């Protein structure tokens, strides 16, 4: 337990350092440095999601939209560190298998890679489809790696995750495109 707390503390220190550096070095995307409440609100929502996820199966955790939103409302480094910190906190609260952490890091990085370089027209259909398909595959892979088989409920949970992620990502991307 002490080692988990120390790792969480270290990640928290890194997070504070990265956020302060982003403010000093203009490391925020779009005009988010002028509106720090956007990122802080998303981070607070991430904490709420982590708490709510403790009541759900790991296949229903909504970390793809969280990773994308954190990066879009801050910057690449700040969003990634915040995402990993929230994901690590999730692992501590649930005691999930390490493969779950690895898969959700991969899912988050897929989202970051696809959405952190949107152009001025903010066309996001292909990245959205690609991210959702790869996330679905990653969720199935995660279940197979943990349990050694795939059941119907695995596909159902993954489909629900992808559908809700689609709704959340579409909402977030539309919001960002207008602000």
Q: Would you kindly provide a brief summary of this structure?
A:
The protein has 179 residues and is an all-alpha fold. The chain is 77% helix and 0% strand.
The span between the termini is 43 Å
Helical stretch tally? 7
Helix content: over 70%
Instruction: Please give the largest β-sheet.
Output: none
SSE topology string: HHHHHHH
Give average pLDDT, whole number: 90
What global shape is seen? globular
* Binned strand content: under 5%
The assigned structural class equals mainly alpha
How big is the Rg?
A: 16 Å
Task: Please give the number of β-strands.
Answer: 0
**Low-pLDDT residue intervals, each spanning 5 or more residues:** none
Give a description of the structure:
The protein is mainly alpha-helical and 179 residues long. 77% of the residues lie in helices and 0% in strands. It is built from seven helices and no strands. The protein has helices at 2-24, 36-53, 63-72, 76-94, 98-115, 125-147, 152-178. Helix 3 (63-72) runs antiparallel to helix 4 (76-94).
List the helices and strands and how they pair.
Elements: H1 2-24, H2 36-53, H3 63-72, H4 76-94, H5 98-115, H6 125-147, H7 152-178
Helix pairs in contact: 1-4, 2-4, 3-4, 3-5, 3-7, 4-5, 5-6, 6-7
């Amino acid at each position: 337990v002490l080692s988990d707390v120390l790792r969480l503390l270290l990640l928290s220190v890194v997070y504070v350092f990265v956020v302060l550096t982003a403010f000093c070095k203009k490391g925020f995307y779009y005009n988010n440095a002028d509106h720090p409440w956007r990122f802080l609100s998303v981070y607070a929502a991430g904490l709420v999601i982590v708490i709510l996820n403790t009541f759900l199966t790991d296949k229903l955790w909504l970390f793809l939209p969280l990773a994308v939103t954190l990066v879009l409302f801050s910057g690449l480094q700040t969003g990634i560190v915040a995402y990993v910190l929230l994901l690590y906190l999730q692992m501590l609260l649930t005691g999930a298998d390490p493969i779950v952490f690895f898969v959700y890091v991969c899912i988050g990085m897929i989202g970051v890679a696809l959405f952190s370089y949107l152009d001025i027209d903010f066309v996001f259909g292909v990245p959205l489809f690609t991210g959702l398909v790869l996330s679905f595959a990653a969720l199935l892979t995660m279940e197979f790696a943990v349990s050694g088989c795939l059941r119907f409920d695995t596909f159902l949970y993954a489909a629900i995750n992808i559908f809700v992620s689609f709704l959340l990502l579409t909402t977030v991307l539309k919001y960002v495109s207008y602000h």
